Amino acid sequence: MDYMSVIFLIAGLVLLAISGDALVRGALSAAQRLHIPTIITGLTIVAFGTSAPELIVSIEAALNNAPGLAIGNVIGSNIANTLLVLGVPAIILAFTLKADGIRRSTVFLIAVSLVFILFLSDGLVSRFDGLVLFTLLIIYLIYSGVMATRARNETLREISSGAEIKSDDEDEPPLTMPWLIGFLVFGIVGLGIGGKLTITGALGVADMFGVADTVVGLSIVALGTSLPELAASVSAALRKQAGMMVGNVLGSSVFNILGIIGITAMLMPLSVPMSIISLDMWIMLGVFLLLLPIVFFTRKLNRIEGSIMVIAYLIYMVLVFTNSA
Fold first, then answer.
1. Alpha carbon of 6 to those of 12, 97, 167, 202: distances in Å?
2. pLDDT tens series, the chain, 325 aa
3. H/E element holding 164?
4. In Å, how far from its chain's centre is CA 58?
C-alpha cells in the first residue's frame, strides 16, 4: 500500500472536519447579521461551498475522458448526502424538520431529479442538456435570493415594531465581520483542498483493487466528496441547527445536479454508463422520494431512523461493488 495515499487520506479527513465547522460558524453568523433563516443559508452558502469538491472532481474527470466517474460522482454523492449526511447526525442527535422551506426544497429536488433522469436515459448528457440544467440553477438561485430578501425584510419589520425575535442561535453571538469573512473563506477553501486530498488518497488506496471509473465515482469518490457535507452537517447538528443541516443536504444535491452536471456537460458532453441508467439513477430517485413522508408527515429524524439510513447506504455500497464484480 502507498503510504503517501494514506497520509493524504488522513490529512484530507482532518482538514474537512476543521473547515466544515468553520464554514458552519461563518454561515451562522452571516445568517444572524443579515436576519436570514438558517435554512436558506444552508441551501445556498453552505450547500455550494461543500459541493466544491464534487465540481472539481467532475470537471477533471470529464476532461480526462472519464464520464462515468463524473456522473457516478454526482449520483453517488446525492445518495450519500441523503442517507449518510442526514443519517449520521440523526444518530448523534435526533432533530425535527420544521424549518420553513424544507418541504418546498424537497419537492424541487425531486422535480430536478426527474429532469436529470430524463437527460440520462438516452445515454448522453449533451451541451444543450447541460445548459438547461444550469439555467434551472440560475432560477433556483434567484428564487432563493427573493425568499431570503422577504425573510430578512419581515424580520426587520418585526424588530422595528419592537417584537421579540426568537433566534436559533441564542447560545452563540455572531462573529465580528473580519472573523466572519475569515471563517467563510477558510471553510470553503479548506473544504476544497480537504476534498482533493481525501480523493487523491482514496484513489491511491483503491488502485490496488482495479475497479472501473464508474464504480470509483459511485463509491470512493462520491463518499470522499460528500465528506464536506457530512462534516458541515455534523457540526450543524452539534450546534442544534437542523434547518441549516437539512438545507445543506437539499441545496448540495440540487447543486450537484444542476451546477456540477450542468457546467461539466457544457464543457464536455457526458456519455452515461448503462449501469447508471439501469440501476443507480433510480436508486437516487428512490432515496429522494423517501424524504417526502419524513418532511411532510413525521417531520423528524431520530436515532433509529438515522441508523436505518446509514445501514441502507452500506447495503448500497455492497450492491455497487457486487454489480461491478
1. 10, 37, 43, 8
2. 567 887 887 888 788 778 877 887 787 788 778 777 766 777 777 777 777 777 877 887 888 788 888 899 899 999 998 999 899 988 988 877 776 678 888 999 999 999 999 999 999 999 999 999 999 999 988 887 787 677 667 766 766 776 554 544 444 567 888 999 999 899 888 888 887 787 777 777 777 767 777 888 788 888 877 887 788 788 777 877 777 778 878 888 999 999 999 999 999 999 999 999 999 999 999 999 999 988 888 778 889 999 999 999 999 999 988 876 6
3. none
4. 14
Distance set, CA 34 to CA 41, 251, 325 (Å): 10, 19, 52
CB of 8 closer than 8 Å to CB of 196: no
Q: Which three cell numbers stand for residue 283?
A: 436508486
Map out the domains of the chain as residue ranges. 3-324
Residue 222 near residue 76 (C-beta atoms within 8 A): yes
How far, in Å, CA of 254 to CA of 110, rounded?
Answer: 9
The percent of the chain in helix, strand and coil, each rounded to the nearest 5, is 80, 0, 15
Domain 3-324 CATH (choose: 1.20.120.530, 3.10.310.10, 1.20.1420.30, 3.40.50.920): 1.20.1420.30
How many degrees, rounded to 5, is the angle at CA 293 between CA 295 and CA 315?
105
Report phi then psi at 92, rounded to 5. -70, -45
pTM of the full predicted structure? 0.80
Q: Which residues contact 302 (CB under 8 A, 6 or more apart)?
A: 90, 94
Rounded Cα gap, residues 120 and 269, in angstroms: 11
- In single-letter form, the type of residue at position 87 comes to G
Give Cβ neighbours of residue 249 (< 8 Å, ≥ 6 apart): 47, 81, 82, 85, 86, 229, 233
Grid cell locating 310: 446509514
CB count within 10 Å of CB 267 equals 14
